[in-house]
Automatic annotation (TrEMBL):
Protein name: Diacylglycerol O-acyltransferase
Pfam families named in the record: WS_DGAT_C, WS_DGAT_cat
Keyword Transferase: yes
Entry EC no(s): 2.3.1.20
InterPro entries documented for this protein: Acyl_transf_WS/DGAT, O-acyltransferase_WSD1-like, O-acyltransferase_WSD1_C, O-acyltransferase_WSD1_N
Family membership: Belongs to the long-chain O-acyltransferase family.
GO cellular component, one term: plasma membrane
Domain O-acyltransferase WSD1 C-terminal residues, every copy: 296-438
Domain O-acyltransferase WSD1-like N-terminal: 6-253
Organism: Streptomyces hawaiiensis
Record pathway: Glycerolipid metabolism; triacylglycerol biosynthesis; Lipid metabolism
Ranges annotated as spanning the membrane: none
Biological processes annotated in GO: biological process involved in interaction with host; glycerol metabolic process; response to hypoxia; response to nitric oxide; triglyceride biosynthetic process
Length: 447
């Protein structure tokens, strides 16, 4: 049975997780329904189709993995790999729930439950609507199995068939022997030294950028193991209207909306926004298709101060735009956001031993995650029922109380919000603030 080693960042996510703090991502899709039985039919389809998607059969097991990454030989325990589960049963992963009037309330409870690590680490929960005219599907994927892009691919595999371009074939790899060829040793040594040099360079940049980090109390907490979710739908044309008036990118506007919503939310809940400028981690994909981990996550990130304390909405947007431009000019290998790249230079055993400590240190580097998850522009369907809205749900780092994920789908922007259930009992208030901030920006552009 063949197995693919986890990429270093995937291994880090696998070892950061604890029973009290799951590290899976999710997506809550809302479908229109033709009948009250649509949800049950959707659950049957998902279970039947899951067996035919190879990526959904993959479980994660411990393996022997090298200490020096350049040697690429089984010398030390501590790694993990994906392999096909011979006993895979889709009925263990697809669950039909009772009808509900509040999809997000149920999704929040389900997002707080860790995935079963001895099985392929994913689940699909079908939530029929009480009104019979819609149903929802909550997909959960462990970050070690799939990042946002790969989770989208896996989820699309159980949707109704679409005409998609055929994937490029993976280049064949040369067979590996039990021991390294002595002719390869000089190159391996150079590779190890180069890895060390890059790690030191990235580490120094992270350290310099993190010297002035101060946590924002409202965005940090002691993990409770509970979750809440909420969703916001905006008109993409409104976002483009702001972008065309002020300049910058759509992503700049979406990040500035988060900054303004945080200001409104903190003031309304009585915490106050004066002198508040939390650090937001903006993930940047550095996926390289022809690596030793072709399916693995490889992320860096931009770190910016959200100008929550600035009362002028257009000034907040200008500040976000300038910060993002500086990050892009410096590149994703610089700044505290590049800390994820260090995973590539850490031995597998160190990931296993140091994972919990690294997870607890997340609050030292940033206060809130704001990530973008791309979705196809084509309409998706399940059993003939069209997908009308989809809310991406990001993993919540240990010690953080709120994470924001954003997707655009068929002319709308969908904000998916995940929060610690005890630290943020008023997540709906923040969701309302997101909607109000867009209206504020539009009004400011007209004046």
């Amino acid at each position: 049975m063949t197995a693919d080693l986890l990429a270093p960042l995937d291994l880090a996510f696998w070892n950061i997780e604890s029973a009290d703090h799951p590290m899976h991502l999710g997506a809550l899709g809302i479908f229109s329904a033709h009948s009250p039985a649509a949800g049950a039919h959707a659950a049957d389809l998902l279970a039947a189709r899951a067996a035919g998607v190879p990526g959904l059969r993959m479980r994660i097991r411990d393996v022997w993995q090298p200490l020096p990454s350049a040697l690429r030989r089984p010398l030390a325990f501590g790694g993990a790999a994906r392999e096909a589960d011979r006993d895979f049963d889709p009925l263990n992963h697809v669950r039909l729930h009772a009808p509900t009037a509040d999809f997000h309330a149920v999704a929040g409870r389900l997002m707080g439950r860790p995935l079963e690590r001895y099985r392929p680490p994913w689940e699909a929960h079908v939530l029929p609507g009480e009104d019979g005219v819609c149903f929802a599907v909550l997909f959960k994927f462990h970050h070690a199995l799939a990042d946002g892009l790969r989770a989208l691919t896996l989820a699309a595999g159980v949707m109704d068939p679409m005409d998609m371009p055929a994937p490029r074939p993976r280049p064949a790899e040369a067979p590996r022997g039990a021991l390294p060829d002595v002719r390869d040793l000089p190159g391996m040594m150079r590779g190890a030294l180069s890895d060390m040099s890059r790690a030191l360079d990235i580490g120094a940049s992270v350290a310099r950028s993190s010297l002035d980090v101060r946590s924002t109390p409202a965005l940090t907490c002691e993990p409770s193991g509970t979750r809440r979710t909420a969703g916001v739908v905006l008109d993409l044309d409104d976002v483009h209207r702001v972008r065309k008036t002020v300049g910058g990118t759509v992503n700049d506007v979406l990040i500035a909306v988060v900054a303004g919503a945080l200001r409104r939310w903190l003031d309304e809940r009585g915490d106050g926004s004066e002198d508040v400028a939390p650090r937001a981690l903006i993930p940047v994909s550095k996926r390289r298709p022809r690596t030793a981990y072709p399916q693995g996550n490889r992320l860096s990130g931009y770190l910016i101060r959200l100008p929550v304390d600035d009362p002028d909405p257009l000034a907040r947007l200008a500040s976000v735009r300038d910060a993002m431009d500086r990050n892009k000019d410096a590149g994703p290998n610089r700044g505290a956001g590049a800390v994820a790249l260090l995973a590539d230079h850490v031995p597998a055993l160190a990931h296993r031993l140091g994972g919990p400590l690294v997870g607890q240190a997340a609050r030292l580097w940033f206060d809130i995650l704001v990530t973008s998850v791309p979705l196809p522009s084509l309409g998706l369907k399940l059993g003939g029922h069209p997908l009308t809205a989809v809310f991406p749900l990001a993993p919540l780092a240990p010690g953080h109380s709120l994470a924001v994920a954003v997707s655009t789908y068929r002319g709308s922007v969908h904000y998916g919000l995940v929060a610690d259930g005890e630290a943020v009992p008023d997540l709906d208030l923040f969701a309302t603030a997101v909607s109000k901030e867009v209206a504020t920006l539009i009004k400011a552009c007209r004046s």
